[in-house]
Amino acid sequence: MSSSGFFILTPICSIAALVFALYLAFSIMREDEGNDKMKEIALAVRLGARAYLKRQYLGVSLFFIVMFIILLWMAFKNYVVIFVPFAFLTGGFFSGLSGFIGMSVATQSSNRTAAAAMKSLNSGLRVAFSSGAVMGLTVVGLGLLHLTAWYYFLDWFYSGHPLPANMDKITAITSAMLTFSMGASSLALFARVGGGIFTKAADVGADLVGKVEAGIPEDDPRNPAVIADNVGDNVGDVAGMGADLFESYVGSIVATSALGVAAGLGVAGVTVPMVMAAVGIVASIIGTFFVSTKEDATQQALLAALRKGVWGSSIIMAIASYFLIRWILGVEHMGVYWSVLAGLLAGVIIGVVTEYYTSSNFKPTKYIAEQSLTGPATVIIAGLSVGMMSTAIPVLVVGAAILASYFLAGGATNFNSGLYGIAISGVGMLSTLGITLATDAYGPVADNAGGNAEMAGLPPEVRKRTDALDSLGNTTAATGKGFAIGSAALTALGLIAAFNSQVVLLGKTMNLSLLNPNLLVGLFIGGMLPFLFCSMTMRAVGRAAGLIVVEVRRQFKEIAGLMQGKAKPDYARCVTIATAAAQKEMVLPSLLAIVAPILTGVLIGLEAEMGLLAGATVSGFVLAIMMANSGGSWDNAKKYIEEGHHGGKGSQAHKAAVVGDTVGDPFKDTSGPSLNVLIKLMSIVAIVFASFVMSVSLF
Amino acid sequence: MSSSGFFILTPICSIAALVFALYLAFSIMREDEGNDKMKEIALAVRLGARAYLKRQYLGVSLFFIVMFIILLWMAFKNYVVIFVPFAFLTGGFFSGLSGFIGMSVATQSSNRTAAAAMKSLNSGLRVAFSSGAVMGLTVVGLGLLHLTAWYYFLDWFYSGHPLPANMDKITAITSAMLTFSMGASSLALFARVGGGIFTKAADVGADLVGKVEAGIPEDDPRNPAVIADNVGDNVGDVAGMGADLFESYVGSIVATSALGVAAGLGVAGVTVPMVMAAVGIVASIIGTFFVSTKEDATQQALLAALRKGVWGSSIIMAIASYFLIRWILGVEHMGVYWSVLAGLLAGVIIGVVTEYYTSSNFKPTKYIAEQSLTGPATVIIAGLSVGMMSTAIPVLVVGAAILASYFLAGGATNFNSGLYGIAISGVGMLSTLGITLATDAYGPVADNAGGNAEMAGLPPEVRKRTDALDSLGNTTAATGKGFAIGSAALTALGLIAAFNSQVVLLGKTMNLSLLNPNLLVGLFIGGMLPFLFCSMTMRAVGRAAGLIVVEVRRQFKEIAGLMQGKAKPDYARCVTIATAAAQKEMVLPSLLAIVAPILTGVLIGLEAEMGLLAGATVSGFVLAIMMANSGGSWDNAKKYIEEGHHGGKGSQAHKAAVVGDTVGDPFKDTSGPSLNVLIKLMSIVAIVFASFVMSVSLF
């Protein structure tokens, strides 16, 4: 079969993913919704989440319209091809749609999960996991379908229209598609940052007044911020993450395709990543069937069940890619297969390392818990220290993956083949995203189910089951984050290499020497940007949380009978406050990602821009791991104490651990995960604006 | 006058610095020592500090012996010239001696400062500042004298002995001298890390139990860790800082000299940085005479007095360098002068920015103080956010200084001239170190004077005066740190460039392209190392502080009548515990700096090592600024609350702010300042071991 023959798998599999997601969504909707109280709570969360997304998409639309006009102007000036502004819109639309669908299903699933948990732990798991799977499959289905549609269109278009100067058809197609993920990335950044600010402002605000000051439990219905907290899980961890991984998925595929041309692999090199993604979808769907367990399963067994799904898919993928690459690229390019395997393996190792540093079964988190005995300061120092320590192995593993994939793909003799190897190792890591995202997106649903059970006053054994599901979700979420960060680093490198190829295509050779002072200055600026970005987002969370704190305190004081459970708090007001704050706060950090590379390119030149991208990738990668793992570890240290260690709930140690957890909230759910998007968006912006920057640069 | 004529200034000025320091030391010794109680306390601190340094130098000697043998072996194998092992010893010796002298004077000055403060604020300032000046002038005097002696020796030696292959005399001299700062750097790292761990373990331990748990004031004589805390200020902030800046000073000069040869400036290019340093000494000595104020001076006036000294020296230096460079290098190389000026200016701007972010007169620190109203978690988030934000301008300023000094020195036509420009801008920044270090080293003396006054039960107005001096010291310390970090970045770049020249001299051309995967992997590893290093050092502080906490609690519980002031605590035991812990904990992080570049070079090649150095410089620079400024800002936010804002001392807000301050302690006094040394030591290790790594590298 020719490579174009295999390509038919791409639309088929992406549509299959969507159909299967639809089937799962319908089966969730058929589940028991629980009692009236549960329905009422779920409705409040759903409405809050919708209201947030509506407002967010409205705000983002404005940005998209402005950018569309700018890109249109650039197209008329011949800085970009005419498709770019339109692809910018479609990319943003589908990225947003992925988040929206995931969130809609998640908000329908939380009360159903709680209701199912009344029956058994396993029933709860099934509903929550299905919701996660809808999200995972929607993201990969829409992502791949979007790319395929554009590929077919461009292939048709360039068959009947003149090609751009100095380009053959496949170069024209990939060079246009490379710019397509800018829309998805922009939306992802807004979704991650805005959602991240919302969720953590609500969470921190609710905890600070509720848990710490008033001493009422988490998710207590008397806490006015409790609905906002639950809304936050959905808009941040579900909608934000969906948009984010949509972008990762699309970005890694287009970067690889573009480098495939430079590597001289022709159409086959371009289609391989897409076909691999298609096969990955099948592997993911098969994997979901592995996720089942006995009715009386322990938590360990549940984790094993989820793992079976992920590992099963990975093994299927590892085997299938071997034949795919052999058939499409031919036996002389089997090195590419080993690059894919290096990526898959690196992803798995990073997952294991993340678990080691964040799970309370291991030394680091136990150490943080122990430090809580000497107060909050030592908890903070210990958590930062664990997070910083946890960057070492992932960096070495990614480093090994880079070298392995470069040299295995033939980099020693052909530089561009090596770069193709690095990029495709990222695709390998992300190919089973359908199922890894499912295990990841299941977490917030379980978290919300717990909130629903608590607020509806369900019996303690139900809350205990939802807690078990939630705790499992923390582990998978941490693993998923490690995975997302690792793939982001590889994808960013692919995009940086593609940026260089793009500049070469435009007829300029850059002096990429590390001792080129312009590049060096770019490296410094790039190394600083993730810090600046985190500062902005953390400060935004602090500010927004402060507003929530004031509001919750006000309601506690002013609403008579609230603490006695006789009066209802004004949930909606907290949601409105968090929404408004998130919208306002997300603008500046998001603009940074777009403005910084362009401005650096214009003022200090393309080489500085290249340095900026590399510097930001390196420091962003390290900082993202540190923040994710510090945050995860603090969270689990707190849970470990709540299980009865070091004095248990209510002890001084517990109070100290809550401080750690609160600091960790913006680390792991706002700033950390947004860094992934930041480094990729900057690379894509550099690519899209390359021609423009070249023509106006002062250097 | 020929360039060698000017060179005679170097020994003259360095000896002048030492003579003047001696004069100042004698005049301090003539001051009133205070009452018996004060003398007794000062003696306890002095003995503790000496005991610590003795034990530290003993431990470090072991390391020096091992390294000496290794270097000797390398010299016999022709990997380095025969002088390297000996210069390694002398460098380490003089670096340690600088720290020792500074500390001896400081521990003699604290009670004398307290006694003088009984008379007036101004008298207190004069004694404390004189002590700082002894330190500053000793560092620059010994540093320059050491270099000069070696220069004369090598010049004499190579006049009568055969030159190494492919080298003329001046190349042989500079290439040997380039390796000389390894001894100083190694000692500096041990001093910074060991001293930093000691001081912060004692401080954190004392505060956690004393201030937070028992509710007794800072420096209360009932606190068993209070002497250890005061010892810590001397071994960390004085001895550690002295060794550190000795190293910066020497490192920046030798890197510039080495690049002077590559830039084709001959002997003149080599001697200019040394002669500039000599003139900087004169400028610093003159500057010390500007530091005086009226007897009834306000704190603002005191700060103005210190500033007058620093600014005066800088202006003298700016004028003198113009003529120096014109006479030595000639009118055609005046670009070098503008590079020097760029460095001086960048240093000043970084100082101003640091003050903005860390002083409670400005918004950022006030913002942190305000966040204390919602508890410790928001204080931590706010402080981290301020620290991260504060990295932006220094990075841009250093970036601008790099570009300006590169292009002004003629980088556009001659690459090596440009690199020389970057390196000499670092020398410009450090040329007035004599006085900037004086204002910096004055801080711990004032801090100790406060401790002495508190423990000796002096009247409140004396304590108020020492507090004013201490608070002023915080501002100058923060400014000094910004300065040290900025110069470290420029020096590290100079050393990296010198590493490249060295490899070229050895006959190998590196592929320094940013897209070289080996270099890229090195960049990732380098970007991670500062995080790993900070993790190790912060964890060490946490562990050591934990031991102190346990001991203080034990003494509170077991020593009857202690809290009533009827029994004396066992101060010595806390000193012994902190000493032992610091010695144990400093080994691993220090070895990291030596092992990481060598191992990376051997396993992934010289290009990866180059990437490692660049990555570590970028992320180390950013992280160091962040940690220094977060720490400084937390400290001052706490002080701001203690002045009566947001509820003042004893309020919930104050407790929250103390948590921030405690987290900030290892940030600003252990991990942050050690990073400066780390990045430079790694570069020097790379240079010294270049030939060895080349011959055994796997790549």
Question: What does this entry look like structurally?
Answer:
2 copies of one chain form a homodimer. In chain A, helix 7 runs antiparallel to helix 22 and helix 9 runs antiparallel to helix 10. The mean pLDDT of chain A is 89. Helix content of chain A is 84%, strand content 0%. Chain A is mainly α and 699 residues long. Chains A and B meet through helix 7, helix 13, helix 14, helix 15 and helix 17 of A and helix 7, helix 13, helix 14, helix 15 and helix 17 of B.
Give the strand content of chain A: under 5%
Taken from the alpha-carbon principal axes, the silhouette of chain A is: globular
Structural class of chain A: mainly alpha
Unreliable stretches of chain A (pLDDT < 50, length at least 5) are none
Number of strands of chain A: 0
Q: How many domains of chain A, as an integer?
A: 1
Instruction: Report the order of strands and helices of chain A.
Output: HHHHHHHHHHHHHHHHHHHHHHH
Task: Characterize the main sheet of chain A.
Answer: none
Largest interface: A-B, 80 and 80 residues
| Overall radius of gyration of chain A | 24 Å
| Arithmetic mean pLDDT of chain A | 89
Percent helix among the residues of chain A?
over 70%
> What oligomeric state best describes the polypeptide chains here?
homodimer
Distance between the termini of chain A: 50 Å
Discrete helix count of chain A: 23
Mind sketching the topology for me?
2 copies of one chain form a homodimer.
Chain A: H1 3-7, H2 9-29, H3 36-76, H4 83-119, H5 121-160, H6 169-177, H7 181-214, H8 226-262, H9 266-290, H10 299-328, H11 335-358, H12 363-371, H13 376-389, H14 392-408, H15 415-430, H16 433-455, H17 460-505, H18 517-558, H19 571-585, H20 587-604, H21 606-642, H22 652-688, H23 690-696
Helix pairs in contact in A: 2-5, 2-9, 3-4, 3-8, 3-19, 4-5, 4-7, 4-8, 4-16, 4-17, 5-6, 5-8, 5-9, 5-16, 6-8, 7-8, 7-18, 7-19, 7-22, 8-9, 8-15, 8-16, 8-17, 8-19, 8-22, 9-10, 9-16, 10-11, 11-14, 11-15, 11-17, 12-13, 12-21, 13-21, 13-22, 14-15, 15-17, 16-17, 17-21, 17-22, ...
